[in-house]
Amino acid sequence: MSLINNRFSRRPGPIVSQLLVTLFICGSIAVLAASKESEQERENINHSDSKLHSIKAKTNITTLITKNVMWVHEEGHVCLREDSFRSVVKVDDVVHVQEFVGDFMYTYEMVNTAALRHTQSARPSPYIGNDTWIDGLRNKKYNCVKSIAPAKMDTTSPALTKLNTDGTSVWAVNGWVIDADTNMKPTSLSAKGEYEHANFFRINTVRPCRYKIIGCKQQAKGKGRRVEEIMSYALSSKTKEALQNFQNLITDETNWCGLNYLDEDFPCPTDENSKHVNIEHACRRHDHAIKYVEIGFGGFTVPRMECKVNWDLYMAVNKKVNNKYIGGKTRNTVNAVFSPLGISGLYGCFEHGPYKCWKRFRWRFKFGNYCTGEHVRYGSKRYENKQLFWGYREKKINCEGDLEGY
Questions:
Q1: How far is CA 285 from CA 52, 272, 319, in A?
Q2: Which of 260, 265, 251 is nearest to 283 (CA)?
Q3: pLDDT-based confidence at residue 9 (cuts at 50, 70, 90)
Q4: Nearest-CA neighbor of 231 among 64, 111, 388?
Q5: Helix (H, G, I), strand (E, B), or coil: what is residue 374?
Q6: SS3 state at 149
Q7: Per-residue DSSP letters for 83-146?
Q8: Helix axes 329-338, 277-286, angle to 10 degrees
Q9: Is the dihedral of CA 253, 255, 256, 261 positive or negative?
Q10: Residues 405, 392: contact at Cβ < 8 Å?
């Protein structure tokens, strides 16, 4: 019996003792590390909270402002209202507008009258006179399209996702990532996806936006050739004279040139019926343009056509023959209307191309070159970046000397 008691009452050997000590030390280290990590987390949270409270105390701003505010970027601006959203993109003298109001989306164009006025003052036209005509284009909406919005633009609920140690912050708004400075002023708008963090634009200025966003009125398109628009300009005497001279071409100088549109039944230009055959061919091709809208303009009815088509006419009548210009009075009269400084800059020409807009992808809107459409270019820069989109309709009668393109 004593042997058994002695057996079970023996002290642990040196190996067992060393193992127990090691386990005790490791456990103590783990507890201390966990305690330290927890303490560091609490410190970070407290630091962030205190930083946020510090920002609020200094600025009296408790959140990112996304109501009744305008965020200005290099290409335009966005206006965030509680019940609507407006995006403005400026390209030269064209303003592309996209609005979300309730369940509807509106897209339309306007004229950047400030840019147009700057262009005209830098390069005055001898045919137009002063630039008061630009006032008539202010706040004018055209190419209005109303459609069901793919989703609502809800920018009313910003959510803080990250507060950096330097006081800057990151916010989630309508599926976007908004970076803000230490005063909670937004500095950039981007989208973060699985394989991207693409900046849509940097926000340069923040302003109030209190104007009401109301969309636009879509007008039915007329069939055939008819007066689609009335432009109420007080034309200068020079402009009226140039228009009258161009209108008189149809009877005085040529058969195909002038304000009147001629049908295919009119005879082909020849030396017998035309004073300047080359110019007649240029005007004949011009009359075959597909894009054509008649504009009531200062008591005249004038054709608004594709910019490239007008440019083709201008280049054709100014083509030298034997190193000399031909056409005399006819050429000068056509130039007064269709040259870059000509009076057709008053009523504009059609252009077609891409522009930046907002488009819905899955659960958020993205900003980029997702839209394309027609717009009207005015003034002396209307032929810049011209491209033939609508082109010319096929002619029914082939004439000797026809120009290329139709």
A1: 69, 19, 15
A2: 260
A3: very low
A4: 111
A5: strand
A6: coil
A7: SEEEEEEEETTEEEEEEEETTEEEEEEEE-HHHHHHHHHHS--TTT-SSGGGGGGTT--EEEEE
A8: 30
A9: positive
A10: yes
Q: Which amino acid is at 55?
A: I
The CA distance from 198 to 203, in Å, is: 14
Q: What pLDDT digit, counting tens, does each position of 256-280 carry? A: 887 655 556 678 888 888 888 888 8
Which residues are registered as beta bridge partners of 84?
101
Using alpha carbons only, give the angle 306, 311, 315 rounded to the nearest 5 degrees: 155
CA dist list (Å): 225 to 5, 229, 260, 302, 311: 120, 12, 12, 11, 21
End-to-end CA distance of the chain: 123
DSSP state of 243: H
CA distance 28 to 290: 87
Residue 289: name the closest of 344, 341, 248 by CA.
344
Instruction: For residues 18-24, give the mean pLDDT.
Output: 50
Q: Is 157 exposed, middle or buried (0-12, 13-18, 19+ CB in 10 A)?
A: exposed
Window from 75-84, 121-130, 208-217, 300-309 with minimum mean pLDDT:
121-130
Select from 74, 97, 94 the least CA-distant residue to 85. Answer: 97
Q: What are phi and psi of 144, to 5 degrees?
A: -75, 130
- Residue pair 333/286 in contact (Cβ under 8 Å)? The answer is no
Q: Evaluate whether 319 touches 343 at the Cβ level (below 8 Å).
A: no
Structure-token pair, residue 66: 């996304």
Structure tokens given for 263: 């049908």
